[in-house]
Amino acid sequence: MRKTKLNHIRQGRRLSDPLAAAILPPEDESPVEREMREKAESEAKKISDHIDDMLRQERNDRKKSKPEVNVLLLGQSESGKSTTLKQFQLLHTPAAFHAERIAWRAVIYLNLVRSIRRILEALAPDVDTIDDHDDESMETASIIISSNGRPPSAILGTRVPKYEHYRQRLEPLIDLEERLIRLLSSSDEDEPTQLGPTHPDWQSFVSGNENYFPGQTLANTNGRPSPTISIPLKSQTLSSAANRNGGSHLLSPNGGNFRNREGREVSVHTSNNWKKYFQLGNKSKSPTSGEIAGWWEDPDDPVHALNASAPAMLELWRDPQVRQRLREKRLRLEESSGFYLDEIPRITAKMYIPTDADVLKARLKTMGVVEHTFSIPSGSNRGVEWRIYDVGGARNQRQAWAPYFEDVNAIIFLAPISAFDQVLTEDPRVNRLEDSLLLWKLVVSNKLLAHVNIVLFLNKCDLLQAKLDAGVRLNQHMISYGDRPNDYDSVSKYFRTKFSALHHTYTPNKERELYVHLTAVTDTRKTAVIISSVRDIIIKGNLRNMRLV
Ligand SMILES: Nc1nc2c(ncn2[C@@H]2O[C@H](COP(=O)(O)OP(=O)(O)OP(=O)(O)O)[C@@H](O)[C@H]2O)c(=O)[nH]1
Ligand SMILES: [Mg+2]
What residue spans carry the region label Disordered (predicted)? Predict the structure, then answer.
């Protein structure tokens, strides 16, 4: 019966399907041969079914894989981009954020030491002979520029008789600053780029050459540079870094003079490398006893030098003549990392562990682009994979932004509106607010970004409020403000209108809705609320079109 059927098929197919005919069993197949053939066929089927299963699984996995949202944080340097990223981390990956808290200790120490150095620089008796505009180390100083370009009180002012006394007592901080920078930027054998003059573009980098682009010399994918961070550095530190690495002197040491005016920056990788030394666990084992010990038991830990200088720092900061001199020079340390000055005993304590707020305030300038990924579950269980890119905002960093424009879904643009009386560190001829407005115009008018959701954070509102309360008048810096009231509500409304008008005029997509928030991104509670509303806007607005929800 079977033989007849096979013959029938054989004859039929022989004419119509040569392939089927070729794989049919031979006509004179013996029972043993048939058994072997059927066994082989069954094996082959098992393998084939297994492959089908795998393909099906992959297809399902692909369907199940999380949709992605790419968010770009943009804005000038010190606008609060990295702080916003930290808030996202705190909200969505709190365990990782807390685990890293201890590593920020070094940055906080460095910020504090730097504030002390800036105070001493400001108190130096013949400081008035130096033009404030040349001071690149005044990274976040808020110096109000009078009509002749110099603070009026810089010429005459309170003398601080104890200056020399403070200078001598605080001299160990110079070495400490150098050490902290060295520890933070200690090179790793495995890293492709190391700190030091062996870098071919080192010279142009330290000289602030606009054409310097880290991505051209570091590992680079899709035109996207490797992330680096940069920490403030003063010249003698740089020259000792050069010495250590066997390179030539770029700047000669000046014997640790506090009045060194040539603040420079040096870049180090953000790839967790800088966190390594200060992470709990690295130094927590005693080399002799093998017992677990706190860093405070390690005599080499920088906390000891800092702790020893604490009484002098406190005395300096509490000296009414010092405060008066800072007021006269209109040096607003609270606008930079000066906030640690109010917490000297806590921060210099041997067992100090940074709080969330301390980490949010820690200032570490970004160079290149830092990426942070996390998942946010949505209504359907799949959730959405968020990628947040934090870029360097200084002028010579902005060329690194463009490669990220292609696949971005949303932009959070930060404009620090308290900066209306400040100038750019990288170009002291440019008012910070003017730069923000210009940058904003470039972003909103960009055709590549025409269909990207844009959220605007008018940031540093807390500092704006304090500044206006202190009597600083907006119309002295923006003539167009005229004689409108100088209070927070009127000023913030004015800025909101100004930024919105630019968007309205220059956007290539007239349908695009602009979302504006008045923010103080160091404030965790308020920022959490804003972030969750921003998330909804991004998901519902932009991503609906992409069928991600
Ligand atoms: N008081 C106050 N401080 C803020 C606010 N936003 C940021 N800061 C502080 O300002 C400093 C600069 O903030 P960052 O987040 O590092 O600025 P950035 O935009 O990342 O700067 P770059 O990396 O140079 O581009 C940090 O010390 C922050 O803690 C704010 O709304 N209020
Ligand atoms: Mg940053």
Answer: 1-51, 239-266
